[in-house]
Specification:
It is built from three helices and no strands. The longest helix is centred in the middle third of the chain and has 34 residues. The chain is 55% helix and 0% strand. It folds into two domains: 35 residues; 47 residues, no CATH class.
Length: 106
């Protein structure tokens, strides 16, 4: 039974390779399409890894990150310049990582 399956696989593979010259155009389109999709996938994964590396590597103990209300991370937050300038004078820092000397109720 196992040998029969191997013979069938071999016969189908040989048939596919023999008819390849007749299907050269469509086969080339498929190969180029898969290569293009892989190139896009690799570039998106590379950008994602770079963004994660940048966010993780940019944290310092003397910096404060101000997030928009409802944002779960730095990447999902957007503050306009006017909002940043109005918040720049606030001296209070909230959160679990804030040191006790800077914690105040705002």
């Amino acid at each position: 039974m196992f040998m029969r399956a191997i013979r069938q696989i071999t016969a189908l593979s040989a048939l596919g390779l023999r008819t390849l010259p007749h299907r050269f155009g469509s086969s080339l389109v498929i190969v180029l399409g898969v290569a293009g999709v892989m190139a896009v996938l690799v570039s998106v994964l590379s950008m994602s890894a770079s963004l994660i590396h940048m966010i993780v590597g940019s944290g310092r103990t003397d910096r404060v990150v101000v997030l928009q209300r409802g944002a779960r991370s730095e990447g999902g937050s957007f503050l306009e310049r006017a909002a940043i300038l109005t918040k720049a004078h606030l001296a209070c820092i909230r959160g679990p990582m804030a040191s006790r000397s800077y914690r105040r109720k705002c």
